[in-house]
Amino acid sequence: MSTVRMVKIKIWSTNIDVLEDFIGKITDIVKKTGVGMKGPIPLPTKKLKIRTLKLPHGEGKKKYEKWEMRIHKRLLYIAEDERVMKQLIRIRVPPEIWMEIEL
């Protein structure tokens, strides 16, 4: 009895619109080929917060600026198939996207 091996793809970005568009391209390729897929599974969004002192201070009052960066993550499991992997390699990855593939 053979089991289907899955490829784990973890994708993350600070820009949610670019991330969703990129995942849409991947799911379109997988649906056209008819290969099994699980996902995209949304993982918890990581929030990085930084407080910096605002200059000039003025008359003794301390004012702070708050900066926040959100990292959105998605997880895909795609059945191992040579045709799909060749097409996925050809997709242009935007500079805002980071991707990790485990075979």
Automatic annotation (TrEMBL):
PANTHER family: 30S RIBOSOMAL PROTEIN S10 FAMILY MEMBER (PTHR11700). This is Small ribosomal subunit protein uS10. SMART domains: Ribosomal_S10 (SM01403). It comes from Thermosphaera chiliense. PROSITE patterns: RIBOSOMAL_S10. GO terms for molecular function: structural constituent of ribosome; tRNA binding. GO terms for biological process: translation. The gene is rps10. Belongs to the universal ribosomal protein uS10 family. GO terms for cellular component: small ribosomal subunit. Residues 8-102 form the Small ribosomal subunit protein uS10 domain. NCBIfam families: uS10_euk_arch. The keyword Ribosomal protein applies. Involved in the binding of tRNA to the ribosomes. Part of the 30S ribosomal subunit. The keyword Ribosomal protein applies. Keywords: Ribonucleoprotein, Ribosomal protein. Pfam families: Ribosomal_S10.
